[in-house]
């Protein structure tokens, strides 16, 4: 199967392993950050309700509002960061690895 | 009565479901026929029938049926996912929660959103690269097909069944309330429309109906939120200040002492009774984070895009729309406090909201936009139910036809036409069963069914997906045994939890103290798969482990991924 040969060539490409390692590490790190922040948020609420009920400066709004809305924005921003990095940094390298692997396949 | 458990029940009902906590737990009063709402909904239904007719011409193969031929763009799919996920309940239920308790409603919203980054970073792209129609394609990629597919099909059907029942009952109650139609009429109407969409138009129709609904819901909610903010010169703090004032004066009216009333008013700005102890908090957090990532009808949406890059974009768009929507809902909830709680038109004599607390956003839509806009929002709520049940049915049908019939029964030799025929028969069957169960469960408290569906997804599907994707030594036997262990423990612990044991069945003190089983059942799922895989010394297991390398390369590169079909 041609796919299998392409696959072997991709695997032996020197760029492949570092790319996957970087991408995987980034994905798990970012997951840990998002999960950690969310868990910290609900644990803070579970342990000390008054903390997030403290008003911000002279406003009626409490610290809970910017923290809460901030988490919503964080969820979006973290995905945007991941998508941007994938589009700009990883996709071109992967495309190059793949096209080289396919080109060798065609040349054979 | 334990408000935490009640809150958690309500919470789960709100997620991705139009079945409202109140509409589910209590009987709603049938309202007089609302002609404007009915006319608006008729217009929407007509539009969807045209979409379905158009989609029918593009639905020839099994691939068209399950994945719209894989030709949906990332942007479109993002909207469709948002349409699948933002329900009438997120809209009505969360705004009602904020209307009642203030800040606690925001905690719900945040919980709903946090599963999406996980899907984005760890699941979406690999799912698209390895799978074709169902998440079982991915979970069984390098394993013996029978056991893993059977587990995945059982899991999908259970999740879909509990979800659908909750949807149908919620739909009947909501429509009775908003449109003044009798309960059985509403349930049959939902069932018939859903069957037509899925049977005739498959995933193409379902996708575009979800997109239409998402656009309508976002537009409607934006209008309400902007109208509210406009009244306060676009100052959130002025809105908050007025809301605290209103809550304080309502408390005074109830005869509270001034200091107590002031504290009650200010309480809406901080966390309330929703999250109590750390263990419950973690359990609830886990269920939310992982539940979304294991819902089969959500995962299925990633097969409708051409490649991993578009799958990635889908999640970004979906999360953006859903996050924006939750911010709108937050404003709407506070808007309802200042504009609905103070308006006698929306109260019964005793100071409760007409039609129940879930009507807060509906009344607010009337307050800002009059009868016509009220009709529009009611129609949007109905449209939302249809979009969600259509997605669920399609997912259930794919589990039966693709996983059970084509892969387990026919060992992959079924033709596309055969598979298509089986999925259509399944769709019809699921639709009829859903209507019958919806009518059967009319007077039952089914609120726990959605939380159960989430717990099942988090405890069975997610461990199966994560370990089969990322752990070399994982085996098919491990996935099946561990996955079933996760499902079973989530199921049993939910039955033993206060929500079901005490609230639903009235059996007294619950044997299991936490309302979400996730803190036990999710680790059980993971450990079960890990342990059974580790002990699996069969020759088959060795082959499955040896195939990991190729699977990993394919999941990273998209080599051999199923391409979009031509149209």
From TrEMBL, chain A:
Domain of life: Bacteria
Protein name per its UniProtKB record: DUF485 domain-containing protein
InterPro entries: DUF485, Inner_membrane_assoc
A single GO cellular-component term on record: plasma membrane
Keyword annotations from UniProtKB, A to Z: Membrane, Transmembrane, Transmembrane helix
Top-level taxonomy: Bacteria, Pseudomonadati, Pseudomonadota, Alphaproteobacteria, Sphingomonadales
UniProt-listed PANTHER family: INNER MEMBRANE PROTEIN YJCH
TM helices/strands, residue ranges: 26-47, 59-82
Automatic annotation (TrEMBL), chain B:
Annotated localization: Cell inner membrane
Gene Ontology MF term list: acetate transmembrane transporter activity; symporter activity
InterPro entries, per database record: Na/Glc_symporter_sf (IPR038377), Na/solute_symporter (IPR001734), Na/solute_symporter_CS (IPR018212), Sodium:Solute_Symporter (IPR050277)
Gene Ontology biological process terms from the UniProt entry: plasma membrane acetate transport; sodium ion transport
Membrane-spanning residues: 33-56, 77-99, 105-124, 151-175, 181-202, 214-232, 279-303, 315-341, 373-401, 422-441, 447-471, 478-496, 516-535
Organism this protein belongs to: Sphingomonas tagetis
A Pfam family this chain is assigned to: SSF
Protein name (record): Cation/acetate symporter ActP
Secretion signal, residue range per the UniProt entry: 1-21
């Amino acid at each position: 199967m041609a796919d299998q040969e392409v696959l072997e060539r991709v695997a032996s490409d020197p760029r492949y392993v570092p790319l996957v390692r970087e991408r995987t590490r980034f994905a798990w790190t970012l997951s840990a950050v998002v999960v950690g922040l969310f868990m910290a948020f609900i644990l803070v609420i579970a342990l000390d309700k008054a903390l997030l009920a403290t008003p911000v400066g002279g406003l009626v709004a409490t610290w809970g509002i910017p923290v809460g809305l901030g988490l919503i924005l964080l969820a979006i921003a973290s995905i945007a960061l991941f998508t941007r990095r994938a589009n700009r940094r990883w996709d071109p390298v992967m495309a190059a690895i793949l096209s080289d692997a396919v080109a060798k396949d065609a040349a054979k | 009565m334990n408000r935490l458990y009640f809150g958690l029940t309500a919470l789960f009902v709100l997620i991705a479901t139009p079945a409202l906590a109140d509409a589910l737990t209590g009987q709603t009063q049938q309202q007089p026929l609302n002609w404007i709402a009915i006319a608006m909904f008729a217009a929407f239904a007509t539009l969807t029938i045209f979409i379905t007719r158009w989609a029918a011409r593009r639905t020839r193969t099994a691939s068209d049926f399950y994945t719209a031929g894989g030709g949906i763009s990332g942007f479109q799919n993002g909207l469709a996912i948002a349409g699948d996920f933002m329900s009438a309940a997120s809209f009505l239920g969360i705004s009602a929660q904020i209307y009642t308790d203030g800040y606690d409603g925001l905690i719900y919203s945040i919980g709903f959103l946090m599963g999406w980054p996980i899907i984005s970073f760890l699941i979406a792209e690999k799912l698209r690269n390895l799978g074709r129609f169902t998440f079982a394609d991915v979970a069984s990629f390098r394993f013996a097909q029978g056991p893993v597919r059977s587990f995945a099909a059982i899991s999908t059907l259970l999740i879909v069944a509990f979800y659908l029942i909750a949807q149908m009952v919620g739909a009947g109650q909501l429509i009775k309330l908003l449109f003044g139609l009798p309960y059985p009429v509403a349930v049959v109407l939902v069932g018939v429309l859903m069957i037509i969409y899925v049977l005739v138009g498959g995933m193409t129709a379902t996708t575009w109906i979800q997109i239409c609904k998402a656009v309508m819901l976002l537009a409607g909610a934006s209008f309400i939120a902007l109208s509210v903010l406009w009244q306060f010169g676009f100052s959130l703090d002025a809105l908050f200040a007025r809301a605290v004032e209103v809550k304080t004066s309502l408390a005074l009216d109830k005869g509270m002492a001034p200091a107590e009333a002031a504290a009650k008013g200010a309480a809406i700005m901080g966390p309330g009774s929703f999250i109590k102890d750390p263990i419950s908090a973690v359990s609830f957090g886990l269920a939310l984070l992982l539940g979304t990532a294991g819902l089969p009808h959500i995962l299925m949406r990633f097969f409708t895009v051409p490649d991993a890059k578009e799958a990635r974009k889908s999640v970004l768009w979906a999360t953006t729309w859903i996050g924006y929507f939750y911010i709108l809902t937050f404003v709407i909830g506070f808007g309802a406090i200042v504009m609905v709680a103070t308006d006698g038109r929306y109260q019964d004599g005793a100071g409760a909201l007409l039609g129940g607390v879930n009507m807060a956003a509906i009344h607010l839509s009337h307050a800002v936009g009059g009868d016509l806009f009220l009709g529009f929002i009611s129609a949007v709520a109905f449209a939302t139910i249809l979009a969600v049940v259509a997605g669920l049915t399609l997912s259930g049908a794919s589990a039966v036809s693709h996983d059970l019939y084509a892969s387990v029964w026919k060992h992959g030799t079924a033709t596309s036409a055969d598979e298509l025929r089986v999925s259509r028969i399944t769709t019809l069957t699921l639709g009829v069963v859903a209507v019958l169960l919806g009518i059967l469960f009319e007077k039952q408290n089914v609120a726990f069914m959605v939380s159960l569906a989430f717990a099942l997804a988090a405890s069975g599907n997610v461990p199966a997906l994560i370990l089969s994707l990322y752990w070399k030594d994982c085996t098919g036997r491990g996935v099946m045994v561990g996955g079933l262990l996760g499902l079973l423990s989530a199921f049993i612990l939910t039955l033993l939890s206060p929500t079901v044991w005490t609230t639903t069945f009235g059996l007294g003190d619950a044997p299991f103290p936490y309302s979400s089983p996730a803190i036990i059942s999710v680790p059980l799922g993971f450990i079960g798969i890990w342990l059974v895989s580790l002990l699996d010394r069969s020759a088959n297991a060795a082959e499955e482990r040896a195939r990991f390398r190729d699977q990993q390369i394919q999941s990273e590169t998209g080599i051999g991924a199923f391409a979009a079909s031509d149209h």
